[in-house]
Amino acid sequence: MNRLPFAPVLRRSLPAALAGLGLALVLSALHSSKSPASAQPSVDGKSIYLERCAFCHGENGDGNGPVARYLNPRPRNFTLGQFRFRTTASGELPLREDVITIVKQGVRGTAMPRWEGVLSEAEVEAVVDYLTTSFVPFWGTYDPPVIAIPDPPRVTAGMIEEGAIQFQELQCWKCHGEQGRGNGSSALSLTDETDRPIRPADLTKAWRYKGGSDLVSIYTRFSTGMDGTPMPSFYDVIDEEQRWALAAYVRSLQTGEPSGESVLQAAFTSQDLPTDPDDPLWDQADPTSYFLTGQVIVGPRWQTPGVDAVTARALYNSTNLALLIEWDDPFQDTQGGGIDVLPQAGTYVDLETFPQNVGPFADGLAVQMPAMLGEGVAKPYFAWGQPGNPVNLWVWHASDQVQEFIGTGLKTEPAAQANTNVAAGADWTDGRYRLILTRPLSTGDPDDIEVKPGQFIPIAFQAWDGSKGETGTRLSLSSWNNLVLEQPTPIAAYLYAGLAVLGVGAGEWWLYRRVRS
Amino acid sequence: MLRRASELLIVLGVALALAACGGGAEPPSPSGGEAESPPAATPAGATISGVIKFTGTAPEAEPILMDAEPICADKYPEGAFTELVIANSNGTLQNVFVYVKEGLPDQEWPVPSEGVLLDQNGCRYHPHVLGIQAGQTLIIRNSDGILHNIHPMPVNNRPFNLGQPVVMDSEKSFPTPEVMIPVECDVHDWMLGYIGVLNHPFFAVSGSDGSFSISGLPAGDYVVEAWHELYGTQTISVSVAEGGTEQIEFTYTGS
Questions:
Q1: What is the pLDDT of residues B83-95, one digit of tens each?
Q2: How many domains does chain B have?
Q3: Taking the model in full, what pTM does it have?
Q4: Coil, helix or strand for A208?
Q5: CA-to-CA distance for B45 and A123, rounded, in angstroms?
């Protein structure tokens, strides 16, 4: 296997990188624990910057701090003077307030944490004044023209319809895709202000709108454009009413945000299980969505996964269980078997040198269940199990068929089972996979568990996005959730309930009569 | 559908034009692409003209895949090719930006009231290389009627990135001299153009015969620079007498 030219560099910078990521984690922990802001009598923007910001943004504000190469998107390079989230016209500097807002709110889906509650108002202002006046070209030399954001109207169905027309006419789909899944024809060739690849937002994922997924934020983004990205300003092209309509439409595309519900309820049907994702029988199964995160347990740790959520439905009949799993992947990668040259170092993947020269890898999805179930059996480790407590993996790849594996942890390659009892059928349309996996409730295979109604069966999901360079342990994964096959309610249950109601009624009547007499 | 910023630009442009008229004859618009020289700033000025020679072999132009945009693809029955190096059949080089870099008297040169046109036609910029004066109106036209975003990437000026989804014009200007500003369209990653911004009108772009001409110069000693997007810059020092003409010649060498 080829040794990578960057491997020595990686090894040398390993301690720094780990320290940096550690610091980032500590910083986010600080935020989540809501530690009170230290009230200092005098606020020094520079020392706050060096303490809190420089690790990512660099001491010189060039966005090239020690951990920058592990982050995607990269930390902002202030010296370029291009800012995404502004209330000013395209290409103009942001207002001081715009920068303060971003520092306070953070940027969702990126390494930029929310500093409100960590830094005091005065500290935020001091650090913003420090970084803008020290690093940002043109800062303070002129008054940037502001794009006025009026009060939003009440969203109506008509507005959303009008917005859909605007989405077509402005050709937003050329980058964002017809369904807004970030899979437009120009999506793959886009680059940012530093010529690094950048992908358009998947507009169906509210949690991926970096500048906010609410109506006003969407309106603001396409009015001002997002400087440093390919996203232009459309302010001169449509009027205010059309802009609100477009914002309302884009907002209406948001769907499937995982709610935190962990139980996947499989509905019973007496019919044959559907093999077509469009089969109306699926409407009987409640969709449940789960977040996936990058695999950062074993090296190389994968911090920027492609698939960050899946939506699952489950149906079963007297003999089989079927899962319909849907996830967004803007580009279909069916060719597998590519070369992976990443060193198996215990560090994060260096994004400056990845994913060049690897692949091709096929997209994939895995469903994970314990290999053993029962009283006294502990749940295996959520990521491919552990030695002595394995998991059963149903691994589907776009390049070939589904296969069952036994996983005993991320450090060992999963072993193929002798028999695969799972059948798969997949469809990729306009940036979305729909995969149906079907398995008998009882396979008779000693490597598989038996799936029984009423039981809580741990279930987890894992995904690979081939064109993001994902293969093997470079994947995204969910935590354990539970699959429950709803027990069909027996007629007797209704009978007993009715009898109970009658009984209570009769008793009350008797009491009433007694009191009256 | 112009808004405040562009209206302001027009007002500014008119005001500058009026100021310019006070100083003498109003010059017509300079433009790039063809071997047109900017007009005389002083009536009987001196001229520096010449040719951009090219020796060696130019890299082969690469075909551009425009399948996603049939409106553009249809404009090239024989296929569209990259414009990185356009060597003319007479041994000269096209799209070289030539300008007076040093030696001009310290004075303000009137900004032409007429704008310079940058046309997006066939998913390409016309002209590929253009010159404009600082503060002069740049008319950005979408002739294709499909989505383009006009996205210049300056260093000394502020950038901008405007979506143009229909046949339309937008107006912008660059306040600060800068040679050169790349212009891109993110929707069509092959689209690339260059804008040279100067605070005087003494520039030209070599055309299909490789020639250029800069006229209306006061007598003086000048450094003239030629810029090519692949082959870089060259300079020549030249002195011109009042009303005189000097010939210079740049030579670029391919592989």
A1: 999 999 999 999 9
A2: 1
A3: 0.82
A4: helix
A5: 60
